[in-house]
Design brief:
heterodimer; A: about 150 residues; eight-stranded antiparallel beta sheet; 3 helices; 8 strands; B: about 120 residues; disordered C terminus
């Protein structure tokens, strides 16, 4: 399987770049970021608020396998359809500082498009901690799945 | 140098990365490594020492000479550091793509249609 999603995180820096090419026309790719019902589907989160405009804000809420709710929010600094979204991202009730995200949408061909996501963290250390997060969560999730299976066997 | 060094700090240095690249191809003595650089042997030897402390390099005694080679296991560990994060985004984007492909079957405004 080809690696479609690439992450470029240079050592010692406080930012990273995520790039991905899609077999989708640019308009459809952007729509996936614009429509709350669609965002909910692919992000696996509840969208409480999504104001797609400059000075707008958004609020997401995710429920983990343990039933705990996690809030995420941010402010939208730029919103140019089919071109870019500039926004902040913050995990509520976490020690992680707010991060700045520059999303750029590009048309490659009529049927393909590219997303470049440039994320800036408060510090290099914080970036590395955020990078390690899915790894820690992955271990947790696996653990929960085992727990689920065991509970069913009871 | 008692404190354990941070492996990511170790590979942040361009000279040390160059040394790793060199030793990925073949095991070499510190002298042979130094021949590839303009820096003094002492400087290169210091870099090798740091990489060894981080377990990115391992030593191999061959007669009177000590050869250094890459510790593949440790290198893989370092490379995999970002992998779960990448995978998380890859899965999200795969989902996005699948959802939007279904969407494309429904007529959408493409901007090409008449206004």
């Amino acid at each position: 399987m080809e690696r479609k999603t690439k992450i470029n995180a240079e050592d010692g820096k406080q930012d990273l770049v995520i790039t991905r090419e899609f077999d989708l026309p640019l308009e459809l790719l952007f729509k996936a970021y614009e429509e709350p019902e669609i965002v909910e589907q692919w992000m696996g989160t509840k969208v409480l608020k999504l104001e797609n405009k400059k000075h707008g804000s958004y609020q997401f809420e995710t429920t983990d396998p343990m039933g705990n709710k996690h809030g995420f929010n941010g402010t939208i600094h730029a919103f140019v359809p089919n071109q870019k979204i500039t926004r902040t991202f913050e995990m509520e009730n976490s020690p992680f500082a707010v991060q700045l995200e520059f999303l750029e949408f590009e048309q490659l061909t009529d049927d393909t498009s590219k997303l470049t996501m440039h994320v800036i963290y408060k510090s290099g250390t914080l970036r590395d901690q955020m990078l390690k997060l899915p790894f820690a969560q992955g271990i947790n999730m696996a653990h929960n799945r085992i727990q689920d299976i065991l509970n069913k066997l009871k | 140098m008692k404190s354990r060094r941070d492996v990511f700090q170790a590979i942040a240095d361009p000279t040390r990365r160059a040394i790793l690249t060199l030793l990925a191809v073949q095991a070499l003595t510190p002298g042979a490594v130094a021949d590839n650089f303009n820096s003094s042997r002492q400087t290169i030897s210091k870099h090798i020492q740091i990489l060894t402390e981080c377990e990115l390099l391992q030593q191999e005694q061959n007669g009177r000479e000590i050869y250094y080679l890459i510790n593949a296991k440790k290198m893989k560990e370092v490379a995999d550091f970002i992998e779960p994060f990448r995978k998380m985004w890859d899965e999200r984007f795969n989902k996005l793509e699948a959802i939007m492909k279904k969407y494309s079957l429904v007529p959408v405004r493409t901007g090409k249609s008449k206004k």
